[in-house]
Amino acid sequence: MPAPKTYILIINGGSSSIKFALYAIGNVPERQWHGQLDRIGQQCTSLVVNDVPGLQDTSQPLRPPGTDPINVPVSDYLGAVAFLVDWLAGLGVFETIQAVGHRVVHGMAHTEPERITPELLAELRAITPIDPDHLPGEIALIECIQSRYPGLRQIACFDTAFHRTLPRVAQLLPIPRRFDAQGIRRYGFHGLSYTYLLSELSRIAGADSANGRVILAHLGGGASLAAVLNGRSVDTTMGFTPTGGLMMGSRPGDLDPGTMAYLMHTEKLTPAQFNHLVNHESGLLGVSETNSDIRALLASRATDSRAAEAVDLFCYQIKKGIGAYAAALNGVDTLVFSGGIGEHAAGVRAQICAGLRFLGIDLDEPRNKANCAVISTKTSRVTVRIIPTNEELVIARLVSQHLTCQAARFASQQLA
């Protein structure tokens, strides 16, 4: 009789969404089902749950009921956290899982998955001013589960860990050195996504491709690029916080630092108000004055010059970033698009790559429009790919490895 499966719960808290997934622990973590609380804090927060094809046992107590969107009566992130934990508890999830794995956006000096302790939570609370849009919600998820299930192991997986290999020159910020001693430097984010993309590139194209000169483009509501050489991150657009780098849905990316002083003076903005401006009122939303959703802007760009300028600026900045990273890498062999925009917006990909033939980038128009896995021409010197990302699977792998290592360590201590 086969041994019963044990499970781990994966939680990926974003600024306005919470993704979650249940994985069976094994040599390869096996996803049972997954879902998402979306549009948190807006008028129509919804819960969507998706079954993995092949899971047919309707008597399975961990199988969620139905897959249709459910309207959720919550008004803010804390309400969404409480709702989700209650909903998962109603399925009996917490009585069956061995651990909970969390995506934690900022880890400062932490580069490996860690069991969440009071000391680690205190560190995360102390650095919430660095990322006030993600860390408070992630901490709330951890604390809510901890308060109800104090004995349950919770593991933090840090988004910054992928970029721990950045060379010193890519980490340094050109400000007084005393701030570097305080840990104020370039960290980079979207690391769990980049970890998955690189492993998938190795799987589908071979280790030589993954170890070549690779530019990864994670383009969604948050957007960044990473330059990867020999499988190691050597540069990335996001810096000390996830607000910097490329223009995003509602974030501006890099700004002339004098802009902050000028706006805070002329608009009489407090630091909190300025933070709201650059995290919730800028980017595609700020330039278009209508929408942060690239799909809506693409649909209206022919009749709305503001929407057209927002899309043009977004694509222009990414094109410049690709050019810069081609210089940092001494050329480029592979360009990977991922994220909601990168995976689905053919027009955006085409506009970004237009005029980059001098780098060896040549898109196949029909394949790009069809969102094929490879969208470059056969004669393109650079292979351009679309790889859908899967941060939850990376967290599941990291948590499984962490649990295995802890079990092995405990066993060796017992034998000593």
From TrEMBL:
> Which residues does the record give as ATP binding sites?
K19, H218, L219, G220, G221, G222, D293, I294, R295, G340, I341, G342, E343, H344
Which keywords label this protein?
ATP-binding, Cytoplasm, Kinase, Magnesium, Metal-binding, Nucleotide-binding, Transferase
Q: Does the keyword 4Fe-4S apply?
A: no
Q: What class of enzyme is it?
A: transferase
Q: What InterPro entries does the annotation carry?
A: Ac/propionate_kinase, Aliphatic_acid_kin_short-chain, Aliphatic_acid_kinase_CS, ATPase_NBD
Cofactor(s) required for function per UniProt: Mg(2+); Mn(2+)
Instruction: Spell out the residues of the site Transition state stabilizer.
Output: H190, R251
Catalysed reaction, written as an equation = acetate + ATP = acetyl phosphate + ADP
Write out the catalytic residues in the record: D159 (proton donor/acceptor)
Q: Please name the GO terms that the record assigns under molecular function.
A: acetate kinase activity
Please indicate if the UniProt record lists ATP-binding as a keyword: yes
Q: In which pathway does it act?
A: Metabolic intermediate biosynthesis; acetyl-CoA biosynthesis; acetyl-CoA from acetate: step 1/2
What does the entry's cofactor note say about binding and number?
Mg(2+). Can also accept Mn(2+).
Q: Which residues bind Mg(2+)?
A: N12, E391
Q: Where in the cell is it found?
A: Cytoplasm
The EC code for this enzyme is 2.7.2.1
Query: Binding of substrate: at which residues?
Result: R103
Q: How does it assemble?
A: Homodimer.
Function according to Swiss-Prot or TrEMBL? Catalyzes the formation of acetyl phosphate from acetate and ATP. Can also catalyze the reverse reaction.
The entry assigns this protein to a family as follows: Belongs to the acetokinase family.
**HAMAP family registered for this protein in UniProt:** Acetate_kinase (MF_00020)
What is the name of this protein?
Acetate kinase
* Name of the encoding gene: ackA
